[in-house]
Amino acid sequence: MKKLKIGVLVSGTGTNLQSIIDNIEKGELPAEIAIVISNVEGAYALERAEKHNIKTTVIEHKGYKSREEFEKVLIEVLKKEGAGLVCLAGFMRLLSPFFLNTFKYRVMNIHPALLPSFPGVHAQKQAFDYGVKVSGCTVHFVDEGTDTGPIILQEAVKVLDDDTEESLSKRILEKEHLLYSKAINLFAEGKLEIIRRKVLISNDK
Ligand code: GRF
Question: Is residue 31 domain-shared with residue 85, that is, in the same domain?
Fold first, then answer.
């Protein structure tokens, strides 16, 4: 079977990217990162990729007059590199239907809360300030909404009495690093089936 090629879109630190790289290198993820694209010049995620000899490029959204113009270039690069899956890993731009229709159900995101609670930015802070007893993380397919796409996997993280926003975020991030690769693995093995907004995971393929 041909290895799944992944395009990873980043804007920042890239610890999720790092966990994907590490799992591929350990032989635990049957995939290859074809390209890492950042919309932010100097994002640390780029350095992480370069250290592992992974191709990188910067496509700054600021340089384009419309979202579509920006996305056209993203699509062109991702297609050229043969990406069969696009993983958002701390990518801080919303993608339009134009982009999403090109990669229908082939764009994944990781979110640091149990969706549909606390979508959008600063999800860990939103959950912590709300006073929830359980938070966690979600890997989902991306649709036109903000963190509204079909849910692939979720993992719960208990909120402890003496937690701070930082300590909670740290424990969530540790789970994110496991969950994202698990979801990519399921995709790579062809085990995900989407029925309306439910993602079914098969065991038998
Ligand atoms: C993670 O918390 C992820 O859930 C969210 O953005 C953050 C990215 O962190 N979408 P990193 O760049 O992977 O370290």
Answer: yes
- Name the residue among 112, 128, 113 with its Cα closest to residue 13: 112
Query: Ligand 1 center to residue 179 CA distance, Å?
Result: 12
Do both 24 and 49 map to the same domain? yes
Instruction: Quote the pTM value.
Output: 0.96
The verdict on the CB of residue 13 being under 6 Å from ligand 1 is yes
Catalytic residue among 111, 122, 140, 177: 111
Cα distances from 108 to residues 18, 134, 180, 201, in angstroms, run 16, 23, 9, 15
> Does residue 16's CB lie within 6 angstroms of at least one atom of ligand 1?
yes
Domain stops at, among 51, 71, 104: 104
User: 205: CA distance to ligand 1 center in Å?
Assistant: 31
Domain range for residue 199? 110-205
Same domain, 87 and 122: no
- Please indicate, yes or no, whether residues 69 and 39 belong to a single structural domain of this protein: yes
Banded pLDDT at 204 (limits 50, 70, 90): low
CA 56 from centroid of its chain's CA atoms: 17
> Mean pLDDT score of the chain, rounded to an integer?
97
pLDDT at 2 over 90: no
Decide whether any atom of ligand 1 lies within 6 Å of the 149 Cβ.
no
Query: In this predicted model, what pLDDT tens digit does every residue of 75-114 receive, in sequence order?
Result: 999 999 999 999 999 999 999 999 999 999 999 999 999 9
